[in-house]
Amino acid sequence: MTKSEVLKSISKELDLTIAETEEIYDSFVDGMNTLLSNNVGFTLPGVGSFSAEIRESHKSYNPHYKKMMLIPPKNVVHFSQSSTLKDEINRGNDE
Amino acid sequence: MSKKVTYSDIVNALSKKAGVSKQKSEEFVKALLNEVKDELKDSGKASITNFGSFKVKEVAERQGKNPQTGDPITIPAHKRVSFSPYKSLRENVNAKYAHLESELIEEDENTTDEQAKDLKEKQETAEIQSETKADEKIAFDVNPFATETEEPDSDTEEVGEESEIETELEEVFDSEEEDEDGEPETAVKTSELPKEKEKNYTNLLATLAVLLLTIIAITSVWFLLDNGKQKNDGSQNNIQAGTIANGQQATQSQSARDFESIKKEADELEERLNAMIQEEERLIAQENERAERIAAARGSSSNNGSSDVNDSNNSGSSDQSTVQNYEVQEGEWYWVISDKLYGKPRFWPLLFKENHSVNEDPDKLFKQVSIKVPDMEGTATNPTKQDYKELAAASKLVAQAYENAGKTEKANEYAKFARKWEQLGA
């Protein structure tokens, strides 16, 4: 599903034009980006929580060079699914 | 890390940013999340543009443990949603550490290196310790002499009331004895120094220091013994030799004999030291000489080259009869020499022409140590017509030589050069 498809369906739902919906969409995504970039976590109800975490520097085997490499620390986005989403998905599986 | 923003905060911020009501923005978020959820359920995949993608992953059944009771539990196979951020988000989040790069580490070698280093250090310390022990041993070896030399001292005390000279001797003796006592201590101390600065001192230095100290200690003991002997003689004269004195003499001669052997050893050591020092000096002198010779050779060669160019600069009309010699260094080849002397490697046929005939292969040269260097009329950057003519002739010769050696490709190449230079010289 592409962005335009999502925008279409949402615009129908909210009685907004596609352009307006796109504006909100972009600002929403932009807001999430800035939040995570500033190490601020948040929760989207029904989906899960996002947070930025530091992955510490560690040693790892590089199969290309066939040697151990020192991987520097990295700030990564961490997502943990919400229990409702988990249940919904697994219920779908059972059915 | 622990900073978190609530859902309502996000909705409020969104409404402000997009300029819509809170209700609308909340509706929007809900709608969007519903879209994502529905899609996830339907196709197992969903994405929010510019943010990231969600994916449903299958998790296989596995054995787990109840964290409270420790009972084993089987966790049934299930699905979970994983999120992978898009590149723009990843980079934004990681902006702080973006400059860092993973680097190769040779862990095994490093550890072995460290181990080797440790071993080496341990060995060094062990060596130095053993040296210091040996030094102490020597000091102890010396000490018995000191005690032995005390005996004649006590003897003279018994007898010494008779003459003033003897007391004087005694005083001298005492002072020297103090020196003697002091020296082993310093020996130990100085031997402990390298222990403290083990990294700074090499083993050689340490051994040299030990040798020097032993020599000093032994020589001082020798002086003491000499004094003691003289004194002994004096006392013998005074008492006309008693049984005690005889015993003294016996011990004295014994110690003297021991001392002689030690003195010999010391002399040998000294000689060896001197020999070593001389050899070292000789080596250093040789090295210096060699370095000077090389420097001189280089200077002369570079001077030759520069003077060639200068000469040709100054006396533009001078004939090519001015021929200089150049000493060929190892690994040099016409191309290189030409570059050195003329400033252009391509002029090497001139050198070849001057030194060789047509029947030689230009690639199979160099048994000569010194070659003739023809002078150029003009400069390398601005040759005269005469130079071009010479070059053309030389190139022809080289081409011919290559032809004779069966290297037609090179011959053609140099024939081409010759033609080109001929045109320039015309």
Task: Report on this structure.
The complex is a heterodimer of chains A (95) and B (426). Chain A has helices spanning 3-14, 18-37, 83-94, and strands spanning 41-44, 48-55, 58-62, 67-71, 74-81. Chain A has 95 residues and is an alpha+beta fold. Chain A has a three-stranded antiparallel beta sheet. In chain A, a hairpin with a 3-residue loop joins strand 1 (41-44) and strand 2 (48-55). Chain A is elongated and about 60 Å long. Chain B has 426 residues and is mostly helical. Chain B is built from eleven helices and nine strands. Chain B has helices spanning 7-18, 22-43, 87-93, 107-159, 164-196, 203-239, 243-314, 334-341, 348-355, 385-405, 408-425, and strands at residues 4-5, 45-48, 52-59, 62-65, 72-75, 78-85, 103-105, 323-327, 370-374. The two termini of chain B are 84 Å apart. Mean pLDDT of chain B is 69; it is low at 109-116, 136-197, 234-245 and 302-321. Strand 4 (67-71) of chain A pairs antiparallel with strand 7 of chain B.
Main sheet properties of chain B: 3 strands, antiparallel
Succession of helices and strands of chain A = HHEEEEEH
Order of helices and strands of chain B: EHHEEEEEHEHHHHEHHEHH
Q: Number of DSSP strands of chain B?
A: 9
Contiguous runs where pLDDT drops below 50 for at least 5 residues of chain A? none
In oligomeric terms, what are we looking at? Answer: heterodimer
Could you say which overall geometry of chain A the principal axes of the C-alpha atoms support?
Answer: elongated
The main sheet of chain A comes to: 3 strands, antiparallel
Note the gap between the termini of chain A.
24 Å
Radius of gyration of chain B: 47 Å
User: Strand fraction band of chain B?
Assistant: 5-15%
Q: What is the typical, i.e. mean, pLDDT of chain B?
A: 69
Quickly count the helices of chain A. Answer: 3
**Total count of helical runs of at least 4 residues of chain B:** 11
Helix percent band of chain B: 55-70%
Give the helix/strand class of chain B: mainly alpha
Q: Could you tell me how far the N terminus lies from the C terminus of chain B, measured between alpha carbons in angstroms?
A: 84 Å
